Amino acid sequence: MNYRSNSILTHIPQNRDGESILKQALFFTNALNMRIFLLDVIKTGPAIFHNPKSKRNKIRHQKALEKFTDFVKNSLGTDIPDNIILRIGWGKIINTLIAESERGGYDFVMIDKSKHANNEHLSPADVSRYVSKSYCPVLSVNKEYPINEIKSIVVPIDISQHTKKRLYWVTFFAKRLKAKIHIVSALHIDIEERKSLAYKNAEKIRKMLEQRGVECEVKILKVHDRERHTAILNYIEEVNAGMVMIRTHQESRFTGKKIGKFVSAIVHGCNKPVFTVGGVTQKYDLDAI
Asked: Where is the signal peptide (predicted)?
């Protein structure tokens, strides 16, 4: 059995965007009772990579950390609590975040997916690339649509994917946030809902979650001539979900494949936080939550 580190990593630029992202990061940190690593990534030339441990570069690193510390203190309006740890990275943002996720020590990484006022110039393609390449789950948030509570979580399922690897995180978030789970699947075929494989799979998940004290309901959508992601996005709005949890194809990071149209459409089409489970999915003990 693997044990969680109880840690989140999030990228915080030293600007107004960073202040907004920090507020969202603190919501999840407090609601989930976790600690958080705040990472500022400094763009730099190749010199620091040739000799990162040189005296000159150590001084640069220390000065950058001191500046970041002042920024976070000013943003918080108080001293930095013990459960907030600051780090400095050097280079390109997405590459640095991928390397950090591979290094380990984090349960998931939080990244801003907003399209407007993004001073770091991260495009939707950059965010999608990180979701597909990260070695741990990714929580993508939109700082333009801040949240302060999550009462319901929508979990779209695909009959072609194994769903048990998602159960840990569904259970974890539901219990910590005291949220109701909505399991949803979209069908193109004209078949009685209860006879569909999607419904049978969803019911199995519902029973497993309810056995662990999680409130849950199942919804099968008939999409007809609509795109699956459009039907799911409409349902997310219908139930006023506070968060979405979806699984990426685990092989995407190893084969170089993108996360796919459906997952990308949910991540970027939904203004609410989207938690993507992929990469190297740990086999955590469900009963240890």
From this structure: none
Helix/strand number for the chain, H first, E second: 10, 10
Centre a 10 Å sphere on the Cβ of residue 37 and count the other Cβ atoms it contains: 19
Dump pLDDT digits (tens) for 198-227: 888 889 899 999 999 999 999 999 887 788
What SS3 state is found at 201? helix
Half-sphere exposure of 242 (CA within 13 A, CB side): 17
Angle at 227 between CA 251 and CA 124, to 5 degrees: 55
What is the Cα Rg of the chain in Å? Answer: 20
pTM above 0.85, yes or no: yes
Q: Which two tokens stand for residue 186?
A: 């979209």
Instruction: Tell me which residue has tokens 């975040």.
Output: 97
Taking domain 7-141, whether its CATH number is 3.40.190.290 is answered by no
User: Three-state secondary structure along 152-174?
Assistant: EEEEECCCCCCCHHHHHHHHHHH
What's the topology of domain 152-272+281-288?
Rossmann fold (3.40.50)
